[in-house]
Amino acid sequence: MSKENVLTLVVAALVGLLGGYLIFSIANKDKQVPVAVSVPQGAGSPTDYQRRIVEAEKIVVQDPNNLQAWIQLANDYFDTDQPQKAVNAYSKVLELDPKNVNAMTDQGIMYRRIGWYDKAIANFEKAQTIDPKHLQSLYNLGVVYMVDLKQPAKAREIWTKYLQFDSTSPTAQQIKNDMAAMPANMGK
Q1: Total domain count for the chain?
Q2: For position 83, which CATH number holds?
Q3: Which domain holds residue 78?
Q4: pLDDT for 71-91, tens place per residue?
Q5: Among 115, 45, 47, 111, which Cα is nearest to 78's?
């Protein structure tokens, strides 16, 4: 399993867990029952994220060229669903490391979350220019075309390219399922 696929699975698990936690917390806010949160090993609790964010913010104020601190900060904003802050932090990462396709792709995902599809597409396409085999940017480019822009033919074209590089991962299986569910007269 490639690093991008593992990263995709970890991010999806974190988003799901955090979303579930938030929904459960809101639904039970008037109850006095303590809430236990199950978080994957190494991912950190919401308190851990907040602590890391505060620490990273202090570091980047003192050392604005600290690439690793910016990456950590951007990723923690991403994981805690703070898209505008994540976009800004990824901008700094890309200022310091312009060819970082992972940061470029994650920023694109956050642009999508905000609804800035043209900026998301630009990021994914730029990542593809730098690394044509970068699967995460290919996958997300297809998602924007399929889900947000309702252009299944374009999504099929992009995902077909993805499947040339990876045809067996869980992401590849999801792509195959999504392509099979496309209307027969669209995207072929």
Answers
A1: 3
A2: 1.25.40.10
A3: 45-98
A4: 999 999 999 999 999 999 999
A5: 111
